[in-house]
Each structure stands twice: as structure tokens, then as C-alpha cells.
Amino acid sequence: MLALYIRDVRLSVRAGGGALTGVIFFLAVIATIPFGVGPDLNLLSRIGPAILWIGALLSCLLGLDRLFQADREDGSLDLLLLAGDRHMTPLTVLTKCLAHWTGSVLPLVVAAPLLGLFMNMEPAGIGAATLTLFVGTPAITFIGAAGAAVAVSLPRGGLLISVLVLPLTIPVLIFGVSACYGAVHDPEPFLQPFLILAALTLFLAVIGPAAAALALRHGGG
């Protein structure tokens, strides 16, 4: 599993510039918001956490089609499915999800504090947004793994993955944004939505790879 993780991290960094593409798209989303809402710094500060989360969510969806596609094209996906028994395949998918998150999504989390400054966010809000993105974005990857597994056999399944995955990520988005607002507004709690967000990530870490493995075995692979 460690060798698979290191291999996939290297591929995600090298192949297609996935991490750089995601960061540039993240920056483009954040940079265009002030042109749409105007130069009101107070308004930008209020909506900053939500914009950061929406930008990160859309950026995460960009690279999901590469999660299994390259392995399917060179035949290594079939070897991975044949190498393990039914209990090993979800673990293999989980490893690939963690490698994809490390290579393609973690740079978005690292870039979030700088982009938070563009939105005139308070330091507490920037810290909360970065922390919630760090905890919540793996859940998006786990959900996306199931969509990527369903669409892996399609020639152009990238758009289909986004259509399938986006509605399922709404709870993650809601609790991530709620925790960010709770960090900067005293009446609103931070800990409760943050713990729910962490619980969602742990829950999807089990359900997502299992669903993706089932889809790969019965259709995608």
C-alpha cells in the first residue's frame, strides 16, 4: 500500500500538472469574485469562507477523472483489482484516494490562507477555513472516488463525475462553511459543525472506497 501511495503521488504531481491546474483554477475563482460583488471589503470578508469553500470544491472536482483513468488505460487497474481479494480492493481504492488528495488537493489547502487575504478575511477566519478545508476536502475525494469508478469506462466521463458528485458534497460544504462562520461570529458555534465535518470525512472514508471498489469490480474495471 505504501508503494502504491508513493507511486500515485508522483503520478499526480507529474501527469498533466494536476496540482498546478487546481491551484490556478482556485485562484481564478477567488480573483473573479470581487469583480462580481464590487469592492466592498466588509461584504468580501463576510462571504470569504463560503467563496473559499466553493472554489476549493470546484477545484477538487477538476482532477477526479484522473483518479482511475490512467490506470485503466495502461492496464494497471485490472492488475490492482486482481491482486487483492474483496477485502483488499477498498483498501487499494482508499490508498489511491489519499494519494490523489495529497498530490492534487493538499496544494489547494496550502494556498487557502493566501487567497483568504484576497477576500479581506480575519486571521481567525483564515485559520478556520484552512483547518476545515484540511479536514473536509478528503471527504470530497472519497465521494468523488465512487463517481470516478462509475464513469471510468466512459471516454469522456469528467463532466458526468461532476454531475454525480456535486450534489453529494453539499453536506460537507454546509458544515465546512458553518464552522468557518462560527470561528469569527461569537453566537455561532465552531466546534459542533467542525466535529460533524470530521465525522463525515471518517464515514465517507469507509463508504466511498467501498462503493468505488464495488463499481470497479462490477462495471468500471
Would you mind describing this structure in some detail?
- The protein is an all-alpha fold and 221 residues long.
- It has one domain.
- The protein has helices at residues 2-14, 18-37, 41-62, 69-74, 76-83, 88-118, 123-151, 158-165, 170-184, 191-220.
- α7 packs parallel to α10 (191-220) and α9 packs antiparallel against α10.
- The relative contact order is 0.15.
Topology of helices and strands:
Blueprint: H1 2-14, H2 18-37, H3 41-62, H4 69-74, H5 76-83, H6 88-118, H7 123-151, H8 158-165, H9 170-184, H10 191-220
Q: Could you list some keywords that capture this structure?
A:
221 residues, mainly alpha, 10 helices, elongated
Largest sheet: none
Rg, Cα atoms, Å: 18 Å
Distance between the termini: 19 Å
SSE class: mainly alpha
Percent of sequence in beta strands: under 5%
Question: What would you say about this model in short?
Answer:
The chain is built from ten helices and no strands. With 221 residues, the protein is mainly α. The two termini are 19 Å apart.
